[in-house]
Amino acid sequence: MRLKHPFHLVVHALLILGSIFMLFPFVWMVTTSFKSEDEILKTGKRIVVLPDAWRPSFLNSEEDTRRIEAAAAQRRLWEDLQAGKPLPEGARKPAKPFETFDNYKLVWGEGESLWSFLGLASSPAAAPGAKKGQQDFYRYFLNTMFVSITITLSSLFTASLAAYAFAFFKFPLKDAIFMGLLGTMMLPQQALLIPNYILLSKLNWINTYAALIVPWVASVYSVFFLRQFFLQLPKDLFEAATIDGCTRFQFYWKVVLPLSKPPMVTLGIFTFLGTWNSFVWPLIVTNDAELRVIQVGLSYFNSEAGTQWGPLMAASCLTIFPLVVMYFLAQRQFVESQATTGMKE
Prior knowledge:
Helix content is 62%, strand content 1%. By secondary structure, the chain is mostly helical. It has a domain at 134-340: MetI-like (MetI-like fold, Orthogonal Bundle), CATH 1.10.3720.10. Strand 1 and strand 2 form a beta hairpin. Helix 6 (137-168) packs across helix 10 (220-230) and helix 6 (137-168) packs antiparallel against helix 13. It is elongated. The model is unreliable at 113-130 and 341-345 (pLDDT under 50). InterPro entries: MetI-like, MetI-like_sf.
């Protein structure tokens, strides 16, 4: 059978290879989170994707085989010691063997839960060996979720109101005001760090949730993004609704917002992603561990003594999981928005 478009097979093959290439860092991060520190350090000079517990024996090198056998011998000594058996003469006390989910327990805090965060249950001690900040990772996670959702909803509301005004209303200097707002996008955020910090300090908002949320509830980019979509909505809808007695806010709430679901979802994804990945600003305006966010928590796995790669990869997996789920849930609206936003009536 002759293919009608044989070149398409080459294109699809290249796309599949590109997808595998792009997916490899994520796979590496997930598998590394299940490795022990000893396993990571002793296989660091070559690419070993699968952990020892998952890798078939025929893929092990001689060095891997010796290391796995030594770890198994240490595990047997540990089990004998726990059973009350004496150590063999000349044997050293073995370390606690590494379990598959030890890195995740170390990151989240063994036995931690939302109930302990809310104060409804006693919070157990952090896992042995946890550095300062690791035992609070569950707190960082919930802080980031709260801050990101609050900023996203607030930003969507304020931006949609401003974009609605610029798209449907006529008022003096409308174009000049809009161009002035766009001009503020040329200022880098780094140049505004000190002025914003001084302002929040005068308001006594440093080290509060207000410092994490309030400066980001309005976004010029969000206004521009939504205005471009609102401009393509038929103006006849606005005139007909006004004649029928619909107020301007009712038209915004009952007509404009329902028709703007794709760009609103897309903008929400961008805003949530930017807030979730924010590091510099939360690090500057917060001092207490109770107010830290997840990106600041990741930095606790780095120290002068080195990087704890296993726990860091486990924490990174927990960090990106909500983003992946959110994108797949909103993928349809995201694609629709990219196909329509920017068009004009």
